[in-house]
Amino acid sequence: MSADDHQPTTPRHRADSPVDAPGHATGTRNGSRPEHATVGEPSAVGEPDPAADDAGAAPDSLADTDAEATRGVGAPEVAGVDAGVPGPGVAAPLFTAHLEEGLDATLREFAAVPTILVGLDFDGVLAPIVLDPRSSRMLPTSAAAIADLTGLAGVTVAVVSGREATDLVELADVPAGTAVVGSHGAQWGTVVAGPDGAGTLEASPVQLTADQAALRAELIRRTHEIADGVEGAWVQEKPAAAVLHTREAARDEAARLTRAALEGPATRAVQVIVGKEVVEMAVLEVTKGDALVRLREETGAGAVLYAGDDTTDEDAFAVLGEGDVSIKIGDGDSAAAYRVTDPEEFSAVLVRLVQLRQGTFDAFS
């Protein structure tokens, strides 16, 4: 769940969403109990080492991951050239030892499509949720996988977040070549390598009409009036919105500020998104679903994978169709076809996708 990807005042997920909240099982197909191997259980093609939970720390790079997969660290050797890759916290060299086999089969089909788009939310997907959203960072394994994916033919990677795009790039260490969609679809750009090697954002400015600009200024001014002087509360000024943050404020003060925002400036906003300790008031109505449709059109992708953890990601899941892949990270109802437990486990999905895509790379070069 992003610090800026919040539950809307009117939930956007479909009323007929088929999923049931998961139990402890990982990599399961939504709406059902897992039929395949899960963490710590024997897989259909091999057994993980009983000591895997103690010995299987997440690799710092894909090179380390591939090396472990080749050596078969912590598990018996498996015949065949595609033994899979270990996931964070699991030493078994089999992807299906901890994620459902159906997801692996789906990733195989997806990786074989000549032109693909990989859309990813940030907080709760690439980075663990933290108390202070300004301290969030992408997991090293996921960052390495994204860097590898952006270097492969026919692959576009896009980080689609509620965060302000420039802040996202600075905080997340997003690899060069990654497309960035910020503020739920209001901001568009691409990460390029700067003179010092660090990634910088090349983006088109958000275009507001005179009326929209005046409304944004009003929302920012009124939100500052609410938050000023309250310890732990602060206001984020986005290109098309004002955002009240109360996560670090005292609980009674946070509740009071939230009510004041909803009863005050939020009544003037075009779109209001309310999350845990956050109220975002925007002058544009945009969704991640709209962003994903545009990305598909611009890239000409034959298939799209999207992963998200929050209610706003349901808009993206809703526009996916046959041949696409939808993955929910964490608990909660969702229209996504698959789910994994947390960002650490999702990093294994990205590593697996890199491995599969590299195996079919020559066919598209």
Helix proportion? 25-40%
Strand order of the largest sheet: 1-13-12-11-2-3-4-5-6
Low-pLDDT windows of residues: 1-26, 31-94, 361-365
Mean pLDDT level? 77
> Gap between N and C termini, in Å?
36 Å
Structural class based on helices, strands and sheet pairing:
alpha/beta
- How many β-strand runs? 13
Which percent band covers the strand fraction? 15-25%
Shape: globular
Describe how the helices and strands are arranged:
Layout (H helix, E strand, L loop, with lengths): L27 E2 L22 H4 L6 H10 L29 H11 L4 E5 L19 H11 L4 E6 L4 H8 L6 E4 L4 E7 L5 E6 L5 H18 L6 E5 L2 E5 L5 H13 L7 E5 L2 E5 L5 H12 L3 E6 L5 H5 L6 E5 L8 E3 L2 H18 L5
Parallel strand pairs: 2-3, 2-11, 3-4, 11-12, 12-13
Antiparallel strand pairs: 1-13, 4-5, 5-6, 7-8, 8-10, 9-10
Helix pairs in contact: 3-10, 4-10
Description:
The chain is α/β, with parallel strands linked by helices and 365 residues long. The chain has helices at 52-55, 62-71, 101-111, 140-150, 165-172, 210-227, 251-263, 288-299, 314-318, 343-360; strands at residues 28-29, 116-120, 155-160, 179-182, 187-193, 199-204, 234-238, 241-245, 271-275, 278-282, 303-308, 325-329, 338-340. The two termini are 36 Å apart.
